[in-house]
Design brief:
alpha+beta, 5-stranded mixed β-sheet, 123 residues, GTP Cyclohydrolase I, domain 2
Length: 123
């Protein structure tokens, strides 16, 4: 019997320093972005076997995202979210994910600004 799953793997609070912003002064400094990801992944095979090879390797996902974001310059957090979604879907075969990109320093009288996107693999 095959059991339907709606399993998720989460990465929360992944902080990356990058060049981000539309203003001239932002184009020459590093700012912190905070990323939260929710990724669809069938955890049942790993859970039943206790075999790490069957897991979504959240360490490798985090490293790949950090490398992508830190190595590039962006104007918009929307662009960061799209690039991260593309990377995770293509490199790790995740079929669906939700990406939240926060820029806590964007507005001085707000705790945070963020965008959230959901993307899925095209079959």
């Amino acid at each position: 019997m095959k059991i339907a799953t709606k399993d998720r793997v989460l990465i929360e609070g992944l902080t990356v320093s990058t060049t981000i912003g539309v203003y001239d002064w932002e184009k020459n400094i590093k700012q912190q972005l905070v990323l939260d990801l929710e990724m669809a992944w069938n955890n049942q095979p790993a859970g039943n076997s206790d075999d790490v090879a069957l897991c979504l390797d959240y360490f490798k996902v985090s490293q790949a995202i950090t490398n992508l974001v830190a190595a590039n310059k962006f104007e918009l957090i929307e662009c960061v979210a799209e690039r991260v979604a593309e990377l995770v879907i293509q490199q790790f075969a995740v079929t669906w994910l939700r990406v939240k990109v926060s820029k806590p320093s964007a507005i001085t009288n707000a705790t945070n600004v963020a965008v959230v996107i959901e993307r899925s693999m095209h079959n």
